[in-house]
Structures are given as structure tokens and as C-alpha cells.
Inverse folding.
């Protein structure tokens, strides 16, 4: 099971061509009724928002203020989405539709971000994204589609976890009970109290991106499973499951360790809860087999990029397992409190590894030794 990394790639798109230049230009689809006074107000506010949104991702006068309290970066999914390898405003916006909802003075605004190569005549789409427009005090303000969509989902409260369950699946009470047991163990491990969480349970990554507001994002189709954590202690699971301890660990470390180091963070989550539907012991055995089959594999060359797409038998991330083995060794030899010091540090990774006796010269041997214990 792979963690969804919110990157946006390029794919071919055969219509809605735009001319790329240094200026932002909003194209309005013919499907948008600009003869309607209220729709026209939405259109003009969309234009103003697009012209100002890249100034900051944690403030904008055209966005609902309470969204920043809840999500911190409510439109981060489209922050600088226009920028490509060739420069700014490569992906020009098109307002595709303004769709009325069943609530008065509230609309779904559908935006596409598209580039056009004048030489090859090819068009490429980076994403299609929905936001909500509301008329409040005679002004149009935008808000996140995710909250609007979740109003129709099943809501179940279990201890510290507020579940939103996809209408396409049944609530799994057994998994919820197991999740609570895992959270109790985490609180003991971190010596803390339960953190209130929002858990959005989707049937797959495609639905996950749809509830976030995307009609299209290439990451919707990269894997059949996966998930994300967001600011506000929000977990989005695309695993068709009510248990996702790996991602919950990331929320606990985010709240408890302000300077958390990604290497030790991912390593700890894998060490304590495994990855996907398999625990650490299962992945560790796979890692052992990988090392046996690849005796010349140099661990020191795969330390710096946790998100390197290096998988063994599709399910086991080798960089994650290296990090998990380092965490296991650190806690075994130096204790949990010393490990927390490393976790809560922004120092260079090799500086931190040197503090626990690991160098570029010996880490290959030391981790292989750890796997034999």
C-alpha cells in the first residue's frame, strides 16, 4: 500500500486549448450563463481570486475566513497550480461551469488548468478542481469543496475519532474498535492523551481525490490504495477501511514534535504499524529477502530520498523499511527518549545518524546486522 503523494503530472488533453504567456488569462466556457447577474458576480470573483491566490496560501480576502481556522491552507491543492517547468502561468485557468446546489446562494465552481504548446499544437491538463461559491452579505466568498461533499456522508463518532464514511461503503465497527485499541497503544507510547481526529473513509484513491474537490488529478489512478493526512488532524483514507494507524501516527508526531524529521517520522510509523494491510514484521521479512536477493545493494545510497519508488514485490517500500530498521535499532540500543530527540530535530540526517553510531561507511553492515536479530 502506497502513500499518496500530492504531485500533479501532465497528461494529454484534446480540447479547451489555451495560449501560454506570462499573464494570467481566465477563459469562460459557454456553459457558464453570464447573462445571470449572480453568476456574473461569481465569475468576476473567480477572476479576482485567481489573480491573488498565489500571493499566500494561508490568506485571501475572497476565501471564507473560517476555512483558514479549520484547514490552515484551504486552497493549497491549487496554489501555484498554473506554474510549470517553463515558468509561471503555463497552465491557464478555464471556468468550466458554475453549478447551482440545493442550497440558495451556493454554487459549485468547476475550474480546469490547461496548457497549450503553440509549436506542437498539443494541450495538457493539470487538473480539474471544484470549489464552493457562497453569497454572504451580498459578496461572493469561496470555500473548500471537501466540507460541502462530506455533508452527505455517514458520520460516526468513536471516542477521539470522527468518522466520515463514504456512501458507497458500509461502516466497519470491528475495524473502528481495533483502531481505538491502536490509538490507546500510541498514547501509551507517546505518553499523551488522545488527539481528536477526523477520518474520511473512501473506497479508493479515486474517491479520495473526488471528495477533496478533484474531477481529475493523475494521482487518482496511480494506485488502488493509499491515503493522505491534512492540517486540522484530518486523515483521508483510500483503503476502503476504518483503520489507518500509520497515518494516525503522523498526526500524533505532527502535534507532539514541532520539528519532526521526516526520515524518523516515516520510519516510526512503519515500525509501529507497518504499511498498508501488513504489519512491520511482515514487511521486515520481505526486506530480509530483498537483502538476500540483492547482496550488492548499498543501503547508504537509499537514505536521503524516502519517497524513492523502490518497492520489493510491489508492496514493500525499501526506503521506508530502511528507516523503520534504523528506528528499531535506535530504540533498542538508545531508548525511546533518545529516539524522540532525533525525531524532533531539523538537523541534517547524517548528522543525526552519526549520533547513534551510523555512518555512510557502516550503515550497510549495521542494518544488515539488525535484520538478523
Amino acid at each position: 500500500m502506497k502513500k499518496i503523494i500530492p504531485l500533479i503530472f501532465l497528461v494529454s488533453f484534446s480540447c479547451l486549448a489555451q495560449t501560454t504567456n506570462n499573464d494570467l488569462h481566465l477563459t469562460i466556457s459557454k456553459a457558464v450563463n453570464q447573462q445571470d447577474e449572480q453568476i456574473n458576480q461569481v465569475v468576476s470573483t473567480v477572476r479576482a481570486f485567481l489573480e491573488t491566490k498565489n500571493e499566500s496560501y494561508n490568506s485571501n480576502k475572497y476565501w471564507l475566513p473560517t476555512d483558514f481556522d479549520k484547514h490552515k491552507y484551504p486552497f493549497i491543492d491549487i496554489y501555484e497550480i498554473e506554474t510549470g517547468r517553463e515558468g509561471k502561468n503555463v497552465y491557464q485557468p478555464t471556468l468550466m461551469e458554475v453549478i447551482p446546489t440545493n442550497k440558495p446562494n451556493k454554487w459549485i465552481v468547476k475550474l480546469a488548468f490547461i496548457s497549450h504548446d503553440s509549436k506542437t499544437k498539443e494541450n495538457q491538463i493539470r487538473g480539474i478542481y471544484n470549489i464552493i461559491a457562497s453569497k454572504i452579505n451580498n459578496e461572493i466568498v469561496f470555500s473548500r469543496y471537501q466540507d460541502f461533499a462530506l455533508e452527505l456522508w455517514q458520520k460516526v463518532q468513536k471516542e477521539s475519532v470522527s468518522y466520515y464514511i463514504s456512501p458507497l461503503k458500509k461502516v466497519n465497527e470491528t475495524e473502528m474498535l481495533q483502531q481505538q485499541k491502536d490509538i490507546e497503544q500510541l498514547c501509551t507510547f507517546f505518553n499523551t492523551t488522545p488527539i481528536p481526529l477526523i477520518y474520511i473513509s473512501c473506497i479508493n484513491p479515486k474517491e479520495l481525490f473526488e471528495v477533496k474537490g478533484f474531477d481529475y488529478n493523475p494521482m487518482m489512478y496511480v494506485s488502488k490504495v493509499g491515503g493522505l493526512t491534512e492540517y486540522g488532524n484530518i486523515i483521508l483514507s483510500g483503503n476502503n477501511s476504518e483503520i489507518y494507524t500509520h497515518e494516525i501516527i503522523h498526526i500524533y508526531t505532527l502535534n507532539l514534535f514541532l520539528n519532526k524529521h521526516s526520515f524518523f517520522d516515516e520510519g516510526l510509523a512503519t515500525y509501529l504499524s507497518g504499511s498498508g494491510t501488513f504489519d512491520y514484521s511482515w514487511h521486515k521479512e520481505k526486506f530480509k529477502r530483498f537483502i538476500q536477493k540483492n547482496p550488492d545493494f548499498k543501503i547508504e545510497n537509499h537514505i536521503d530520498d524516502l519517497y524513492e519508488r523502490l518497492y520489493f514485490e510491489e508492496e514493500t517500500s525499501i526506503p521506508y523499511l530502511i528507516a523503520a530498521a534504523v528506528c528499531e535499532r535506535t530504540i533498542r540500543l538508545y531508548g525511546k527518549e533518545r529516539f524522540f530527540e532525533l525525531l524532533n530535530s531539523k538537523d541534517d540526517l547524517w548528522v543525526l545518524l552519526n549520533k547513534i553510531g551510523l555512518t555512510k561507511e557502516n550503515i550497510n553492515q549495521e542494518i544488515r546486522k539488525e535484520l538478523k536479530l
Summary: The first strand starts at residue 11 and ends at 13. Residues 8 and 218 are 6 Å apart (CA to CA). The chain has three domains: 11-143, 152-256, 258-373. DSSP finds twelve helices and 14 strands in the chain.
